[in-house]
């Protein structure tokens, strides 16, 4: 049988006050209950810890030896409970997010600013990576939350749709396509294309459209970063098909955009979490805030204003 924290506190209180009466008052325990706690503690350690006499209570040599250890154990217990309470109350902790660059730049900053105002002592780490890497980080529990497209492999993760992004034609200022209210994919593909990496979810969606239309694109250049694609378009090297949310990664100078149609290609974006286990208190608070901000983002999409600067909806 192991000593309880209650027994240790009883032992330390009696040692400090030299009296069962004063110790019972300090601990708000009856004297019989205090005596029972000490008796059980002595049974656990296998010997007497106090000498009782008419002059009071004194520690035995073994009791004096044990007192610093008992104080340390109580201190560790109180500190552990305090640390745990701070975690549950979100006064400390850490959260790791994995997000598509589109979401990391176009949605997440406002969410994190709001989160930081509410929970300033929570450390935040963000991985802005490709969709497959988001899934891997969450599946391996190296990230608490992912923000991405729906994973192709869903065995170890759960996907919660939040918003539907859409594709836009990005063209240099003065381009003929900007004279149209919407741009058919077939019209966009008549011009040289600045493409993004074949490993990206954006490129996978574009390839699906090409297959559906039985068309090929005149790939002028392939780049890894959406921001680079935007600057190449601005320089007049070609046009691009990009998610509307990606405009937070692009300098708007020298370019314009129009919604792509025929076909309309929605891109479902959402939360990815591990399918097993419960999120921490810090992660739960982040999930609630992401959902809150996503509701305002959906309003923007419905109003056709997705490429405007996102101000968020946090209180």
Amount of helix: 40-55%
Mean pLDDT, to the nearest integer, reads 88
Q: Biggest β-sheet, characterized?
A: 8 strands, mixed
Which residues form runs of ≥5 with pLDDT under 50? none
Q: Report the span from N to C terminus.
A: 52 Å
Overall CATH architecture of the largest domain = 3-Layer(aba) Sandwich
CATH superfamily of the largest domain: Periplasmic binding protein-like II
Outline, from the CA principal axes?
rod-shaped
Computed over alpha carbons, the radius of gyration is 31 Å
What share of the residues does DSSP label as strand, in percent?
Answer: 15-25%
> What pattern of helices and strands is seen along the backbone?
HHHEEHEHHEHEEEHEHEHEEEH
CATH topology of the largest domain: D-Maltodextrin-Binding Protein, domain 2
Helical segment count: 11
Category by helix and strand content: alpha/beta
The strand count comes to 12
Protein name: Transcriptional regulator
Pfam families: HTH_1 (PF00126), LysR_substrate (PF03466)
GO molecular function, one term: DNA binding
Keywords: DNA-binding, Transcription, Transcription regulation
What does this structure look like?
- With 315 residues, the chain is α/β, with parallel strands linked by helices.
- The chain has three domains: 5-88, Arc Repressor Mutant, subunit A, CATH 1.10.10.10; 93-163 and 268-302, Periplasmic binding protein-like II (D-Maltodextrin-Binding Protein, domain 2, 3-Layer(aba) Sandwich); 165-266, D-Maltodextrin-Binding Protein, domain 2 (3-Layer(aba) Sandwich).
- 44% of the residues lie in helices and 23% in strands.
- The protein contains eleven helices and twelve strands.
- Helix 1 crosses helix 2 and helix 1 (5-17) crosses helix 4.
- Belongs to the LysR transcriptional regulatory family.
- InterPro entries: HTH-type_LysR_regulators, LysR_HTH_N, LysR_subst-bd, WH-like_DNA-bd_sf, WH_DNA-bd_sf.
- This is Transcriptional regulator.
- GO terms for molecular function: DNA binding; DNA-binding transcription factor activity.
- Residues 3-60 form the HTH lysR-type domain.
């Amino acid at each position: 049988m192991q000593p309880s924290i209650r027994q240790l506190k009883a032992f330390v209180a009696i040692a400090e006050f030299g009296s069962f009466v004063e110790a019972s008052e300090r601990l708000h325990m009856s004297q019989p209950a205090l005596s029972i706690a000490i008796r059980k503690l002595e049974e656990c350690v296998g010997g007497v810890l106090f000498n009782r006499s008419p002059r009071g209570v004194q520690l035995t040599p073994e009791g004096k030896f044990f007192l610093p250890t008992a104080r340390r154990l109580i201190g560790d217990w109180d500190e552990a409970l305090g640390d745990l309470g701070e975690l549950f109350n979100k006064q400390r902790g850490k959260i790791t997010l994995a997000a598509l660059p589109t979401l990391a730049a176009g949605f997440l900053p406002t969410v994190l600013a709001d989160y930081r105002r509410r929970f300033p002592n929570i450390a935040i780490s963000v991985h802005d990576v490709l969709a497959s890497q988001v899934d891997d980080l969450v599946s391996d529990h190296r990230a608490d939350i992912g923000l991405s497209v729906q994973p192709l492999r869903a065995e170890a993760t759960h996907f919660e749709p939040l918003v539907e992004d859409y594709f836009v034609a990005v063209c240099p200022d003065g381009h003929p396509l900007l004279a149209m209210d919407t741009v058919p994919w077939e019209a966009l593909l008549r011009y040289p294309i600045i493409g993004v990496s074949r490993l990206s979810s954006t490129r996978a969606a574009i390839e699906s459209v090409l297959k559906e239309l039985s068309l090929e694109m005149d790939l002028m250049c392939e780049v890894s970063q959406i921001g680079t694609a935007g600057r190449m378009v601005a320089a007049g090297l070609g046009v691009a098909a990009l998610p509307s949310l990606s405009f937070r990664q692009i300098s708007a100078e020298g370019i314009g955009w129009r919604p792509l149609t025929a076909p309309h290609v929605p891109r479902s974006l959402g939360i990815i979490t591990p399918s097993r286990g419960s999120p921490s208190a810090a992660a739960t608070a982040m999930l609630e805030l992401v959902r809150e901000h996503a509701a305002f983002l959906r309003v923007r999409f419905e109003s056709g204003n997705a490429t405007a600067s996102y101000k968020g909806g946090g209180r």
